[in-house]
Each structure stands twice: as C-alpha cells, then as structure tokens.
Design a protein that fits this description.
This protein is of the alpha+beta class. 49% of the residues lie in helices and 19% in strands. The chain contains 9 helices and 5 strands. It has a 5-stranded antiparallel sheet with strand order 1-2-3-4-5. A hairpin with a 2-residue loop joins β4 and β5. The longest helix is centred in the middle third of the chain and has 19 residues.
Length: 218
C-alpha cells in the first residue's frame, strides 16, 4: 500500500516535515474544500497562497492553542483556513490519470474521500511540533489559468523547495499538486496507484484504500 514517496522522504528532515504536514498535506488532514468568495481573490496566485500560509503560521504559533485541551480547537481553525485553498477533486482526478475515466461518479466521489482520509491519517502527526521554519516566496510561473507558486522553506539545517501548482476556477486560486524538491506528490501517487490498478483493478485500489484508511483510523 502506498507510503510516503521515497523521493520526498529522503529530502525532508523531521522539523521541515512538520511544517509541510501543516501547510501542504494539511489539505487532507483538515476536511473537504470550502468556497472562497470572489472578492477575496483579486490578487495573484502567490498572494492567495501567501495569505493562506500566513494564517496557518499564525495559528501554529499561537501559544494559547498549543495546550492539549485546545487541540481540537486548533484543528477546527486550521480546517477552516486550509480547506478553502485546495481542490481535492482536481487532485484526485490527476492522481488517477487515465484511470479516472473508468470510474463511475459514485466511485470518483469515494476515491476522493478515501484518498483525502488516507493522507489525513498518514500525515496527521506532522501538525504538532512546528518550530519556526521560515517561508520564502520566490516567484510565480503562469501559463493560462495554471500557475506554479515557487517557495522555499528554511530550517536551521536546510532549505527545501516547495512549489504549489494552482489553477483558477470561478475566480478562485486552488492547489492541485505540490512539488517538493522536484518530486510531485500527485505524480508519485499516480505511479503507485496505477501499478495497483494494472495488477488488480480500480475496485482493487478502492478496496485497499478502504482497508488502509480503516486501519489508520483505528
């Protein structure tokens, strides 16, 4: 069953991975995508991403939310912030690639839900322990409605490049992939899920995800 892609695992130190868990993989930890109003998206994709990350960093650095009894409060606040910036449907579609067309609408909905829960339970522990890593905003590469916002995360020992791939839909910028030091999260899972589908079937992949998420839940 897919684990953390090896290319990513090798490049992320524990402290930096903590930040990634909150800023990137938090897309799965914190629920379904919300809706941003059009008036909130008058700026560039980089401005939109910076706004989301700034809000997350503020919550992670809030001492009043670090107490164990406030853990659920912090998760709910982060859910509201992060859930509005990621497009789970688009991410799921790109992760399955050509196999997306083989799924019924019901299966597509289930896959997106299971993939979200799989990421959620795999990376949930990364939310705790943020220790002040800095985010630098480098540049924005645009092609039509698609944009790549390039950033770097710096810890005491290393710098990790993090590129957010975003698209604009209904005047809202949303993330559909994240590239960590040249390794695409979507591409890694597409390769792993594709091998499962070729060896078994789409239903086989769904069943493995059902089993995996149930085991992680327990």
């Amino acid at each position: 069953m897919p684990q953390l892609p090896p290319g990513i695992a090798r490049t992320i130190e524990t402290r930096v991975r903590t930040l990634i868990g909150a800023l990137i993989l938090g897309l799965a930890v914190f629920g379904f995508s919300g809706h941003l109003s059009a008036e909130m998206e008058t700026g560039s994709a980089m401005e939109a991403m910076k706004g989301t990350i700034d809000q997350v960093l503020k919550v992670l650095g809030d001492e009043s939310l670090k107490a164990s009894e406030r853990a659920q409060d912090r998760l709910e606040i982060l859910e509201d912030i992060i859930g509005k910036r990621f497009d789970y449907q688009e991410m799921g579609k790109r992760t399955l690639g050509k196999h997306w067309q083989q799924l019924s609408e019901a299966d597509r909905e289930e896959f997106v839900h299971l993939f979200r829960r799989f990421l959620s339970k795999t990376y949930a522990g990364n939310v705790d322990g943020y220790s002040g890593e800095q985010v630098e905003y480098l540049k924005e590469r645009r092609k039509g409605d698609f944009v790549e916002v390039q950033t770097a995360v710096t810890s005491d020992k290393s710098t990790l490049s993090i590129y957010y791939r975003m698209l604009k839909s209904s005047n809202v910028w949303r993330v559909y992939d994240v590239v960590l030091d040249g390794v695409s999260l979507v591409k890694n899972f597409r390769s792993q899920f594709g091998r499962i589908i070729e060896a078994e079937s789409v239903e086989g992949l769904l069943e493995k995800l059902r089993t995996k998420t149930a085991r992680l839940q327990s």
